[in-house]
Specification:
Blueprint: H1 3-18, H2 20-32, H3 41-53, E1 57-60, E2 69-74, E3 79-85, H4 98-115, E4 122-128, H5 136-142, E5 151-153, E6 156-158, E7 169-178, H6 194-209, E8 217-224, E9 235-244, H7 247-268, E10 271-276, H8 288-299, H9 319-323, E11 328-329, E12 332-334, H10 345-350, H11 354-376, H12 378-390
Amino acid sequence: MSDNRDDVHASVRAQVAARADALWDVALRLHEDPEQAFAEHRAAALLSGELEHAGFAVEREVAGMPTAFTARSGRGRPAVALLMEYDALPGLGHACGHNLIAAAGLGAALAVASAVPADAGTVLAVGTPAEEGGGGKALEVEAGVFDDVDAALMFHPGVYDWVRAPLTAQVQYRVAFHGRAAHPTGNPTEGVDALAALVELFNVLAVLGRRLPQGSHVQGIVTHGGTATNIVPDFAQGRFGLRAATTGALQELTEQLRTCAEGVARATGTTAEVERVTVRYEHFRDSAALSERFAAHLAEAGIPLSPPVPGVFLGSSDIGNVSGRVPSIHPFVAIMGEDGSDHTPEFAAAAASPRAREVLLAVTRALACTAADVLLSGELRARAWAAHRAA
């Protein structure tokens, strides 16, 4: 590593140290004022305001979303994006630690923009709403936010210290059956039971589930099952969440769902509607070159990262869509023990704990140093892009 980059790393660490209290204050303010998907108005205003005050050029309402924004320092390529999530969970607040993701992305963007030479390229801070439901990053990808970016960097707090994220592809579908109403006693042969068709779809999917590959599953709920017990239901509806280890496998699973619904409709004399109702999250594609660089920087703070446990999947995220467009990282860094879990009240409390503060500052330094490496090392960018294009 060149002396120049060593100097930049030292400057980054000094910048983060100088902002330590301010970054923790941002994390706590977000934690104390949780806002849900696409309604994170105060969070977006706080974060974009901090960046604007530091001289970043801010664009709000990006990709048609009122709470999405970008903030840019520098110009041209190379360009590195620091991602910020800030939506909370209904009833649980920041039980996924997005307050820490936001503060880390903010701090890293501010630090690297201050530390790298003015002609090094572009630092892009991206405010990404609605990760928990809505897929803000997926919409930003479609709008071209990442078209001129060389790397996208973020972290996620968790219960493991893992260098990369085993995140599956996922999507949700509505399946509705239309039948014919009748009195179940007076003229039962005239009825075509839409609810019976929906129940049969659950049975067929249970059989399908026994032969799905690792990482794939279907979870469904009934959202409408009829109006009265003395009426044969002429309409029934369910919502089904599909997940798979890869985006290709998810597409295959989607076609299987459609085939099952159409087969049940033919067998029961109903008609079926199958409609996608959410943005599709793609599986996460890790950039090993960038993840290894981040892990090396984080290890300097005494936090070693290991590969994920094989066969363990931790859910899905719209960072997968970004990772299909540009080299990306999404490491997990623990803020509580492995006996815990996110999306719980205990994890929400951990996201405002002393351990969370230590993790926030260590991760912010590592993200900013990695971002500086992306801007200053053509060799690192070349390796990251070569692996990305070959995947």
